Amino acid sequence: MSEGAERPARPPPPPPLQKEQQEATEQIDEVQNEIDRLNEQASEEILNVEQKYNKLRQPFFQKRSELIAQIPNLGVTTFVNHPQVSALLGEEDEEALHYLTRVEGTEFEDIKSGYRIDFYFDENPYFEKKVLSKEFHLNEGGDPSSKSTEIKWKSQKVQMS
C-alpha cells in the first residue's frame, strides 16, 4: 500500500446468532441425523433384498450356464467381438480362449464389498490351472482393488500379453 492511502475498512464481524437461530440450527442437525439414520437403515434393507434375490436367481444362472456351454466357442467369440476387450487380445490370447468353457460371476456375501469372476478352461497347452479368477474389492472408504489367480504357464508356452 502506498503512503497516505487509506486502508479499506473491514466489514464488521457477523452478529452472534440469535438464540432462536442457534436453536433452529441445532434442530436442523438433529433432523439431518435422523435422515442419515434412515438412509443407513434403507441401505441395509436394500442390501438384504438384493442378497435374497441373488440367491433366488442362482438356479437360473446355473441353467443359463448349462445352455451356454452347448454353444461351441461362445467364450472366444464374445471376447473377440467385444470392442474394448478385443483391442487387448493378441493372437495367442485368442488361441487360449478357445479352451474357455464358461465364465461365472459371484458377488461376495456382503455384496457391497465386491465380486469374483471365474474363468473355466478345458485342459490346454497354455497354463496349468483350469480355473482362473479375478476378484474386485471395495474397501470401507470405497477405494477399489483387485487380485487375480497367479497363472502357472506351461513350460512350452511363452507368457501371453
UniProtKB/TrEMBL annotation:
InterPro entries: NAP-like_sf, NAP_family
A GO CC annotation given for this chain: nucleus
Signal sequence range: none
Gene Ontology process terms (BP): nucleosome assembly
Keywords on record: Cytoplasm, Nucleus
Subcellular location as annotated: Cytoplasm; Nucleus
Region (Disordered): 1-26, 138-161
Stored SUPFAM superfamilies: NAP-like
Coarse class of the protein's main subcellular location: cytoplasm
Similarity comment: Belongs to the nucleosome assembly protein (NAP) family.
Name the record gives this protein: Protein SET
Lineage: Eukaryota, Metazoa, Chordata, Craniata, Vertebrata
